Amino acid sequence: MTPPGRATAVAAARFVTLLFGGLYAGFLLAVLVLEATLRGATAEVYVVVQRVKHADLDLLAAATITPAIAGGALLLLLLGPRQRGPFALGAVGLLCLLAALAATLLVNVPINAAQLGWSPQAPPADWAAVRDRWQAAHALRTALAVAALGCQLLAALRWPEPLAPP
C-alpha cells in the first residue's frame, strides 16, 4: 500500500503530466494541420499567417510544455527506479518532451524570430526553404510530443497506483 501523501502526489503529478502533455500534443497537431494547409500558399499569405500565429501561440507552447516536463520529472522522482514499468515509460516520455523542447529551441524559435521581421510584400528569396526547415522540425517535435503522451498514458493505464516501496 502506498502512503496516502505519496499516492496523492503521484496522482497530482500524473494529472499534470497527462493534462499538459495532452494539451501540448494537441496544440502541436493543430499547428501541423495548419502548416499543411499553407503548403500551397503564396509567400505573402504564408508570412502574414506566421506573424499572426507567432503573436501568441509561442506563449501557449511554453505554458503547456513547461508543466508537462515538470510533472513528468516529479513523477519520476516519486516513482523511483524500483518501479521499473512506470518509471521506464515515464523516463521515455520525459526524454521525448525534452527532445521536443530541444528541437523547438534549436530550430523553431530562431526561425519564428526571423519570420517576425519578414515583410509580406518582400519575403526573403529562400522563404520556402526556411518554411520547409521549420515544418520538418515541427513534425519531429509533434511526433515526440505524441510519443511522450502515449508513454504517460500507458504508464497510467497499466499502473494506476504505484507499488509500495520495499
Keywords:
single chain; 166 residues; mainly alpha
Overview of the structural elements:
- With 166 residues, the chain is mostly helical.
- It contains four helices and no strands.
- The mean pLDDT is 91.
- The longest helix is centred in the middle third of the chain and has 37 residues, at 43-79.
Summarize the structure.
By secondary structure, the chain is mainly alpha-helical.
How are the SSEs ordered, and which strands pair?
Elements: H1 4-37, H2 43-79, H3 84-116, H4 127-158
Gross morphology is elongated
- Describe the sheet with the most strands: none
Strand content: under 5%
Low-confidence stretches: none
Average pLDDT rating: 91
Based on CA atoms alone, the radius of gyration comes out at: 19 Å
Number of helices: 4
Q: Find the structural class using helix and strand composition.
A: mainly alpha
> What is the percent of helical residues?
over 70%
Q: Termini distance?
A: 10 Å
**How many strand segments?**
0
Secondary-structure element order, N to C:
HHHH
